[in-house]
């Protein structure tokens, strides 16, 4: 990916003046549609994040930034094997691919490359979803065409865009609801909300160089979706005093990811923050909504940190794919996110108690590193750092 070190500019953040058609009714729940997303009987829901596979043409695709002795046997198949290993090791309930799923310039046939890239998820029978990065549309399919192909694949819960939205920027803006444990009092409530947004590819405004950003139309959709979900969660039955926690997934970092120094995050920062050169205000939009607890992105392959800003954890996944730039000797990696419910006084399962995360390295032992609590319902809950090991 081409890095651009352009100065940050902060345009006015006036969503109310955006002119477009957007309906007001409650977002359609995915509970009971296709594969049901809900917490397990043990009160947990686990997400595997795969960022920047950069898949191209399979076994003929060369690897980047590995040791010379690895080159003869390294290809896209190493990326596929890593996905398969992660699925076997973690047994996630849901898999999220956060963009640059294929590297368009080196993919001869976009449809074939996309299908091959997602094949481990398809074969696992685990529900999965994907969003687009800045390289997915650079092959034989347009950006819309890529998203439509993804939506047509087996076991995916991806959507091109919300059915109720008539005009919205990008392709791949949607939300998914995670129901409570089946048979519990929260069976028919969404205990955890997932938001997916298309952060674009490159600026289409001549005066603004660099990468794309999340537009006002997308932010207004997010605001209204979040508001409807909050109201549903806080009304009977089982009315709650606050919103269910929300997790947000997109590809390109926000300028706010540059807010941390080495003492204020868990993980590493080994390259600059390649955000858009303008600040579209989406971080402020999320803070105002009040339900977002963490954001998960990709794009900058050598960054894998999580840092907390104004109550929201901003998390990189670290580079996953072998046809993506990386660093020889610095293992490719994946992020795991685990949401856990609290036990009720009656011994059943209630609302989300905590959201934890860790990463696994593509080494001999799939070493788990940087386990931490991203969010805890308990007033006493604080972020805890662990050097290694899964917090599960």
UniProtKB/TrEMBL annotation:
Q: Does the keyword DNA repair apply?
A: no
Where does this chain mainly localize? Answer: secreted
Which controlled-vocabulary keywords does the entry list? Glycoprotein, Iron, Metal-binding, Secreted, Signal, Zinc
What cofactor does this chain's UniProt record say it requires?
Zn(2+)
The reply on keyword Transmembrane is: no
Per the record, the gene is: LOC105126221
Q: Which Pfam families match?
A: Metallophos (PF00149)
Name the record gives this protein: Probable inactive purple acid phosphatase 29 isoform X1
Q: Which organism is it from?
A: Populus euphratica
Got a GO cellular component term for this one? extracellular region
């Amino acid at each position: 990916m081409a890095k651009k070190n352009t100065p940050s500019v902060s345009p006015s953040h006036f969503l109310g003046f955006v002119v477009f058609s957007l309906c007001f009714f409650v977002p359609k729940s995915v509970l009971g549609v296709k594969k049901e997303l809900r917490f397990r009987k043990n009160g947990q829901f686990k997400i595997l994040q795969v960022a920047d596979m950069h898949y191209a043409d399979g076994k003929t695709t060369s690897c980047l930034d590995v040791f010379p002795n690895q080159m003869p046997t390294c290809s896209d198949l190493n990326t596929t094997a890593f996905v398969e290993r992660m699925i076997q090791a973690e047994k996630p309930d849901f898999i999220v691919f956060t963009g640059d799923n294929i590297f368009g310039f080196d993919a001869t046939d976009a449809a074939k490359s996309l299908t091959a890239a997602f094949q481990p998820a398809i074969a696992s029978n685990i529900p999965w979803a994907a969003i687009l990065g800045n390289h997915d549309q650079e092959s034989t399919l347009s950006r819309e065409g890529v998203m439509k192909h993804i939506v047509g694949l087996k076991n995916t819960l991806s959507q091109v865009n919300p059915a109720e939205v008539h005009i919205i920027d990008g392709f791949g803006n949607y939300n998914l609801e995670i129901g409570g444990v089946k048979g519990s009092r929260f069976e028919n409530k969404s205990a955890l909300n997932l938001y997916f947004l298309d952060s674009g590819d490159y600026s289409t405004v001549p005066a603004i160089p660099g990468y794309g950003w999340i537009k006002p139309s997308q932010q207004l959709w997010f605001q209204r979706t979040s508001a409807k979900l909050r109201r549903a969660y806080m009304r009977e039955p089982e009315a709650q005093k606050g919103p269910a926690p929300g997790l947000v997934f997109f590809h390109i970092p926000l300028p706010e990811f540059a807010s941390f120094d080495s003492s204020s995050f868990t993980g590493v920062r080994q390259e600059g923050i390649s955000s858009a050169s303008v600040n579209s205000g989406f971080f402020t939009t999320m803070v105002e909504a009040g339900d977002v607890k963490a954001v998960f992105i990709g794009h900058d392959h050598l960054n894998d940190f999580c840092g907390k800003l104004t109550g929201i954890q901003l998390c990189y996944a670290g580079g996953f794919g072998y046809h993506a730039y990386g660093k020889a000797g610095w293992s490719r990696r994946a992020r795991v996110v685990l949401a856990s419910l609290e036990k009720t006084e009656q011994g059943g399962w209630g609302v989300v108690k905590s959201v934890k995360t860790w990463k696994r390295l593509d080494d001999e032992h799939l070493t788990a590193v940087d386990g931490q609590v991203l969010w805890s319902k308990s007033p006493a809950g604080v972020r805890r750092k662990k050097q290694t090991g899964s917090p599960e």
